[in-house]
Automatic annotation (TrEMBL), chain A:
GO terms for biological process: phospholipid translocation; positive regulation of myotube differentiation. It catalyses: a 1,2-diacyl-sn-glycero-3-phosphoethanolamine(out) + ATP + H2O = a 1,2-diacyl-sn-glycero-3-phosphoethanolamine(in) + ADP + phosphate + H(+); ATP + H2O + phospholipidSide 1 = ADP + phosphate + phospholipidSide 2; a 1,2-diacyl-sn-glycero-3-phospho-L-serine(out) + ATP + H2O = a 1,2-diacyl-sn-glycero-3-phospho-L-serine(in) + ADP + phosphate + H(+). Mg(2+) binds at residues 412, 414, 809, 813. It comes from the Eukaryota. This is Phospholipid-transporting ATPase. Gene3D superfamilies: Calcium-transporting ATPase, cytoplasmic domain N, Calcium-transporting ATPase, cytoplasmic transduction domain A, HAD superfamily/HAD-like. Residues 835-1087 form the P-type ATPase C-terminal domain.
UniProtKB/TrEMBL annotation, chain B:
It is found in: Apical cell membrane; Cytoplasmic vesicle, Secretory vesicle membrane; Golgi apparatus; Membrane. Pfam families: CDC50. It comes from Sphaeramia orbicularis (orbiculate cardinalfish). Keywords: Cell membrane, Cytoplasmic vesicle, Disulfide bond, Glycoprotein, Golgi apparatus, Lipid transport, Membrane, Transmembrane, Transmembrane helix, Transport. Signal peptide: none annotated. InterPro entries: CDC50/LEM3_fam (IPR005045). Belongs to the CDC50/LEM3 family. Residues 12-35 are annotated as: Disordered. This is Cell cycle control protein. It is a multi-pass membrane protein. The chain crosses the membrane at residues 52-78, 337-359. One of its GO terms (biological process) is phospholipid translocation. GO terms for cellular component: apical plasma membrane; endoplasmic reticulum; Golgi apparatus; transport vesicle membrane. The gene is LOC115413346.
Length: 1111, 374
């Protein structure tokens, strides 16, 4: 690179409007005149991930907690209780609220304290800084932009650094970014060429340079900057800086003794790592949405109850002024309040009295259920992968139940359905096929020039590194070659497979040394090529190239890439033969790549160089300009041949897909691969069956017909089938009517494009959706990452609002994982980015089956029961209190004692349901796995739909009426003790409450299908606790209470026979309708799940009979 | 009972479900394995009893419930019917009723108490102990403001509370600057009619019937919950500095002139009144007529006279006053509800059992045969 270019570039850059941040290395001012010294302020290198400080914790945390609508509601109730004269003491709602708020605050405070501690340890970890030619040790947070930092092997970079020089002679260093994106493979970073020769601190310290770079941005793989090096008053030398020069905070130095790096602009909170810590948008599950809807209904019920009682109170008072009330008339009138205000106060008092119908504890229980329940996923041994050494991961526990609601599964192909474990199968040069192993390639005598070039191309055109140590924690690929074991390492498994395949065909890539690639050819001679440029792979271009200079001085450009991106750029070569072979391979499900080359004359090379450097030096739009440059350089190829690499299907992928299909889910495969390969994989994985009628919506077809016609035709084909009937009898007709759709990226974008021709042609989007709805499987090929997300979004927004799940393993799947209702990442070979951004991460695709069919199913039924039961038990709890108002003159007299009011939801009835929602298994794990169709029973939020909700509410009201009137008739103007003494209102309430606690707990017991010893313990234990508590609560004159109303009430009640009889009677009557409903439903129209339960029980009985009866 | 209603199928799963042999595979060096523990709990494989409610299994439970409940119900019903109860309304609403004038001319200030007599006849003799109740209707003793208008500390004999009653007692907390003992609306509205019962034999001689006032309040109330301040000796001194409730005629320490230790807060009539009733129509135990020794019934059939010292006004709130005589069985007073309810529920269960039997035969056999594939 000549100086001329540099200066020119420098000028163009200076004309830009935005002045990029400028860093002075070693804080030395540039020679005067070069540029005005503008002192800039940068943040220090302190990492602040904590949310609170010691001082603002309480106000800030409280503010954030009360922003939640539920907490706010309870706060309002509490305040109302404090302000006005209400039936229950503020303690009853204040205590639970205080408890919830405190627990949350402690949890958040603890988490924040941990963050503070982590911040502290990061900020105070020692860092070596070069100052005045010496290495000085300081603390990380004292680093300033412009400091020169020394990092030793296995140390973590304290901030984003520009690599100046490395202990390795070629100016490179190896880095793992495992903590950033999870990729444990070693990546190579390059020193700035002008400084890579520095060896000592003094040399580094003598450097006089400035760095300009873009504003901080979170993309880990993008960096654009420029370094200006001043040497002796001369014009500064400018060098471009890219992502390959930037060492990111959080990454670790490997296999390099030490490096000198200078602090780039990015310190502290501006580092890319810190910028990437932004939280993802919150996903809400369907259950949560229905829960909120139910809450609103209950709020309405609550308000209407309060209104009814308030109105009745005043209607009742006028004609019927009671003696007791008249006692207060004068008292109230002394306040001389307006009637309206009094009525409003009464309304609020009724609100307070009935507010328990929306319980605080439900939120706590739901949170706990989700948090604790998610451990079962991480604990699941069957989802543990021995090879990877990891099990499933839960990144958010908010969506557990959503796993049981999935209707659409969007899956990536490579690495998800397939192993992403590439194996080289064959290559074809000009139509001649070479297959390793099979007694070598067919030795063609005339070792044609193309063959040589082809093998060299594949040996040179890649970004594979050779590792010679044995202890490499990257991907292990041993090659034994007389020398110590060495490995090929690359971020792309395809490349490794290709290079290894070449080795088996006789051409071994040895290493990259001093910019020279060394190849051991067939005749054991070492050939050296100087590596001049690498035109890196990207997913838009779908190809990569290298420019090398052979030992004979020839400039060669080798390119390999997808057939669709190579063929249009080929001018000569045996295109037809290669194309035929490529297509044949693609049909077999192999991944094919085409290889082409081009000779460059010196002048052509110079020009290419010029394009590239110009683009690389650009500070803005560099990506775009690079793409332009690549486009200019990569053309007029001579086709050499093609390769085929097999990507085997993942273990049990077909079985998993079949199960998902049976479970009523629609599986879409979204891939960037070409149609034939993808279709072959789909057939292999049973996504398409032999009987599946394939509908194609591809570019090839739309070129022949207009998109409009194709869409309408397909729609007609699909609708001709009486699909309405097939849906209901899915099981029997499962195989005979089945459509599969194949669509490619280009057509998809045409479909999704807003229709410019006006509404006359109808909305393609709708027609497309209509077609998709009737296809059991859809394959989208040639998709860009963003298109994947678009598809997910399209389905999400369609009128049924189905629940979607996206599963993928690579960075290109992140967008769809984030978009879908549930995002699942596979801990794959292409790094951890997908797993990091997902809601759940699993090691293998096959684990999806258990995740959805077992865990998802369980979580859904558990939380559905939890929600319904919570509302039910609070209706049972509060409705008698409502009824009591009719008999106490609407005076807001509580039916139950304060202790019962407070503890009902906290301790008497909370544990059984929490435990139920953690361990319930209505059918066994084996049954769920064996019969995926059971998943359909819970589809579409079936357990939380309005009729079900209504049933539970009615059941609650019925039970409440039974409790109340049962006790009413028992108390009605008579006594039920054998000594003639009378019971008061607190005994009345206690009787109702006892029946209530027992009924509600036994109702749960009736719903429990899985009685482990813990269930027994908790259910009977909490009933026992209630009895013991009541005995204790009534057994002592409590010194700190100002009332003793419960004294001996419970014991007196239990000493009466009729009380026992009526408790038993009322419990029986309350449970009766639910039992009858259950039995009738099961007998008349059993669901598949119920059949499975009975089937299991019967089989068990048969089994027992077979084993235990004497023959 | 619940357990019997469920089909039981005990499913004891083996603790280790899938122990793959490859777990020892990655053991080169001290690699910290993230492999989850293979415990029954973590793998959700705890042995469990898995009951299912089906027609077949619930059926016997229904029959059993029916068979148990119906006899209990019949027993309860018969017991309830054997209880004798007599009720007389002496409010005096009707112009012909003997207490009409008392009710009409009532005033809080009159020191002269009005006495009226009600005649009634018992058709059947009352055996064993007879319990005498007074009943009030449309009296909302369960009104919230009423219920809370008391000070349990004061009633428990706390001296500071005696002199400084709780705020809950307002507006019956103090009178003329002196604390009210006992304070509050409940105490203030103490039922103060006096009822006396006479038997009129064939020669028209009035024989007073002895009415015991011991044992009408809960034992725990009388002995623990209610206590006079600083012992029982000389209540007049103890209650010095307090005043009687506004509506009372006598101070609390003179409630029972006949018996010294039935005064103050531990007066049983007072304790009975202080236990607020659950419903607006209620009765409270007033006196007990102990069974006489021998075979003579406690209350033989015949004519009786009830003398009422009419102090308690109820007409202002459209209330009613009653006197009730009742015998008591093991299940308390006359209440056919429980017996009828038991018989009804038992019959329903029995009927449902029959229905389920039909359903079971109609559907279950079909399902079962279809459900077991192999």
């Amino acid at each position: 690179i000549t100086r001329g270019h540099q200066n020119k570039l420098f000028l163009t850059l200076q004309n830009r409007t935005r002045i990029p941040p400028c860093v002075y290395i070693g804080h030395k001012e540039p020679p005067p005149g070069a540029e005005a010294y503008i002192p800039q302020r940068y943040p220090d290198n302190r990492i602040v991930s904590s949310k609170y400080t010691f001082w603002n914790f309480i106000p800030k945390n409280l503010f954030e907690q009360f922003r939640r609508i539920a907490n706010f509601y309870f706060l309002v109730i509490f305040l109302v209780q404090l302000i006005i004269d209400t039936p229950t003491s503020p303690v009853t709602s204040g205590l639970p609220l205080f408890f919830v708020i405190t627990v949350t605050a402690i949890k958040q405070g603890y988490e924040d304290w941990l963050r503070h501690k982590a911040d502290c340890s990061i900020n105070e970890c020692p860092v070596d800084v070069v100052q005045q030619g010496k290495v000085v040790r300081t603390q990380s947070h004292k680093l300033r932009v412009g400091d020169v930092v020394m990092v030793r092997e296995d140390e973590t970079f304290p901030c984003d650094l520009i690599l100046l020089s490395s202990s390795r002679h070629d100016g490179t260093c190896y880095v793992t970014t495992a903590s950033l994106d999870g990729e444990s493979s070693h990546k190579t970073y390059y020193a700035v060429p002008d400084t890579m020769a520095f060896r000592t601190e003094q040399e580094v310290d003598s450097l006089h340079a400035t760095i300009e770079c873009e504003q901080p941005q979170p993309d880990l793989y993008k960096f654009v900057g420029r370094i200006n090096i001043y040497k002796d008053k001369e014009e500064p030398v400018a060098r471009p800086l890219g992502a390959e020069n930037l060492l990111l905070r959080g990454a670790t130095l490997k296999n390099t003794q030490h490096i000198y790096g200078t602090v780039a602009v990015y310190t502290g909170m501006e580092t890319k790592m810190a910028l990437n810590y932004q939280s993802k948008s919150q996903k809400r599950s369907a259950v949560e949405k229905s829960m909120n809807a139910f809450l609103i209904v209950y709020l309405c019920i609550l308000i209407s109850k309060a209104v009814i009682n308030t109105v009745l109170k005043y209607a009742w008072q006028c004609p019927n002024i009671s003696f007791t009330y008249s006692l207060y008339c004068t008292f109230l009138d002394t306040f001389s309040l307006l009637q309206v205000i009094r009525a409003f106060t009464d309304f609020l008092a009724f609100m307070v009295l009935f507010n328990y119908i929306i319980p605080v504890s439900m939120y706590v229980t739901v949170e706990m259920q989700k948090f604790l329940g998610s451990y079962f996923i991480t604990w699941d041994e069957e989802m543990f992968d021995e090879e990877l050494g990891e099990g499933a991961q839960v990144n958010t526990s908010d969506l557990n139940e959503e796993l049981g609601q999935v209707e659409y599964v969007f899956t990536d192909k490579t690495g998800t359905l397939t192993e992403n474990n590439m194996e080289f199968i064959e290559c074809c040069v000009d139509g001649n096929v070479y297959i390793p192993h099979s007694s070598g390639a067919e030795e063609t005598d005339e070792s044609c020039e193309h063959e040589d070039l082809f093998f060299r191309a594949l040996c040179l055109c890649h970004t594979v590194q050779v590792k010679e140590e044995e202890t490499v924690d990257g991907i292990k690929r041993g090659i034994h070659q007389g020398r110590p074991t060495s490995f090929y390492i690359s971020s792309s498994p395809d490349e490794v497979a290709l290079v290894e395949g070449m080795k088996r065909l006789g051409y071994t890539y040895l290493r990259l040394k001093d910019n020279h690639m060394e190849i051991l050819n067939k005749d054991d001679e070492i050939e050296r090529f100087e590596l001049l440029h690498v035109l890196n792979f990207d997913s838009v271009r779908r190809r990569m190239s290298v420019i090398v200079k052979s030992s004979s001085g020839e400039y060669l450009l080798f390119c390999k890439g997808a057939d669709s991106s190579i063929f249009p750029r080929v001018v000569s070569g045996k295109v037809e033969q290669v194309k035929a072979r490529v297509e044949q391979n693609a049909v077999e499900g192999l991944r094919t790549l085409c290889v082409a080359y081009k000779r460059l004359s010196t002048s052509e090379y110079e020009e290419a160089c010029h394009h590239l450097t110009e683009a690389k030096l650009a500070l803005q739009d560099r990506e775009q300009r690079l793409a332009q440059a690549y486009d200019i350089i990569e053309r007029d190829f001579v086709l050499l041949g093609a390769t085929a690499v097999e990507d085997r299907l993942q273990e049990k992928a077909a079985d998993t897909i079949e199960s998902l299909h049976k479970a009523g889910m629609k599986v879409w495969v979204l891939t960037g691969d070409k149609m034939e390969t993808a279709a072959a994989t789909c057939y292999a994985s049973k996504l398409f069956r032999r009987s599946t009628q394939i509908l194609e919506l591809t570019k090839k077809r739309t070129e022949e017909q207009s998109l409009h016609d194709v869409l309408f035709e397909l729609n007609r084909t699909v609708l001709r089938q009486p699909h309405g009937h097939t849906r209901t009898e899915q099981d029997s007709n499962f195989d005979c009517l089945d459509f599969g759709l194949i669509i490619d990226g280009a057509t998809l974008s045409a479909v999704l494009k807003p229709n410019q021709e006006g509404a006359a042609h109808g909305n393609y989007r709708e027609i497309f959706l209509e077609i998709c709805r009737n296809c059991s499987a859809v394959l989208c090929c040639r998709m860009a990452p963003l298109q994947k997300a678009q598809i997910v979004k399209l389905i999400k927004a369609s009128k049924e609002h189905p629940i979607t799940l996206a599963i993928g393993d690579g960075a290109n799947d992140v967008s769809m994982i984030l978009e879908a209702h549930v995002g699942i990442g596979i801990m794959g070979k292409e790094g951890r980015q997908a797993a990091r951004n997902s809601d759940y991460a699993i090691p293998k695709f096959k684990h999806l089956k258990k995740m959805l069919l077992v865990h998802g199913h369980y979580y859904y039924i558990r939380i559905a029961e939890l929600v319904q039961y919570f509302f039910y038990k609070n209706v049972c709890f509060i409705f008698p209190q409502f009824l009591y108002q009719f008999f106490c003159g609407f005076s807001q007299q509580p039916l139950y004692d304060t202790a019962y009011l407070t503890l009902y939801n906290i301790s008497f009835t909370s544990l059984p349901i929490l435990l139920y929602s953690l361990v319930e298994q209505h059918v066994t794990i084996e049954t769920l796995k064996r019969e995926p169709s059971l998943y359909r029973d819970i589809a579409k939020n079936s357990l939380l739909r309005w009729p079900v909700f209504l049933y539970w509410t009615c059941l609650g009201v019925f039970d409440a009426v039974i409790f109340f009137f049962g006790a009413y008739f028992l108390f009605d103007n008579t006594t039920f003790t054998s000594n003639g003494q009378m019971f008061g209102n607190w005994t009345f309430g206690t009787l109702v409450f006892t029946v209530l606690v027992f009924t509600v707990t036994l109702k749960l017991a009736l719903d429990t299908h899985h009685w482990t010893w813990i269930n027994h313990f908790v259910i009977w234990g909490s009933l026992l606790f209630y009895v013991i508590f009541s005995l204790l609560w009534g057994g002592i004159i409590w010194p700190f209470l100002n009332y003793q109303r419960m004294y001996y009430v419970f014991m007196q009640m239990l000493s009466s026979g009729p009380a026992w009889l009526s408790i038993i009677l009322l419990i029986t009557v309350s449970l009766l309708p639910d039992v009858i409903k259950k039995v009738l439903c099961r007998a008349m129209c059993p669901t598949a799940t119920e059949r499975a339960q009975v089937g299991f029980a019967l089989k068990w009985r048969l089994y027992k009979a077979a084993f235990f009866t004497p023959k | 009972m619940i357990a019997a209603m469920m089909a039981s199928s005990y499913n004891a799963k083996e603790e280790d479900g899938h122990h793959s042999g490859s777990s020892s595979h990655g053991g080169a060096g001290a690699v910290k394995s993230k492999k989850p523990d293979n415990t029954a709990f973590k793998q959700q494989r705890l042995p469990a009893w898995q009951p299912i409610l089906t027609a077949g299994t619930v059926l016997p439970a229904f029959f059993v419930i029916g068979l148990i409940f119906i006899p209990i119900g019949i027993g309860l019903y018969v017991t309830s019917n054997n209880i004798k109860e007599f009720e007389v309304d002496y409010t005096g609403v009707d112009i012909n009723s003997p207490c009409y004038s008392c009710a009409k001319n009532f005033s809080w200030n009159s020191t002269q108490s009005c006495v009226c007599s009600v005649n009634f006849t018992l058709e059947q003799p009352f055996e064993s102990n007879v319990f005498m109740y007074y009943g009030l209707s449309n009296f909302y003793q369960n009104h919230r403001r009423y219920v809370k208008s008391r000070d349990d500390s004061q009633l428990n004999g706390d001296l500071s509370a005696l002199m400084n009653p709780s705020k809950e007692c307002e507006p019956y907390r103090t009178n003329d600057g002196l604390p009210i003992a006992p304070c509050g609306a409940i105490a203030n509205s103490l039922f103060n009619d006096t009822l006396d019962l006479y038997y009129v034999d064939s020669n028209s001689t009035k024989t007073p019937i002895p009415l015991a006032k011991k044992g009408i309040a809960w034992w725990t109330d009388k002995h623990v919950k209610f206590r006079n301040p600083s012992g029982n000796t000389n209540l007049t001194v103890t209650f010095q500095g307090t005043t009687k409730p506004v509506n009372w005629r006598k101070p609390v320490y003179e409630l029972d002139p006949s018996e010294a230790d039935n005064n103050g807060f531990i007066n049983e009539d007072f304790i009975v009144w202080m236990r607020t009733a659950a419903l607006p129509t209620f009765r409270k135990l007033y006196r007990i007529i102990q069974k006489k020794s021998g075979t003579t019934p406690t209350l033989p059939s015949g004519r009786y006279i009830l003398d009422i010292t009419y102090n308690y006004p109820v007409l202002s709130f459209d209330g009613r006053k009653r006197m009730i005589l009742s015998t008591i069985s093991w299940m308390g007073g006359k209440n056919p509800f429980l017996g009828i309810a038991y018989i009804t529920v038992g019959s329903i269960c029995f009927f449902l059992g029959v229905v389920l039997l039909i359903i079971h035969h109609k559907y279950d056999t079909r399902n079962n045969s279809a459900d077991i594939p192999n």
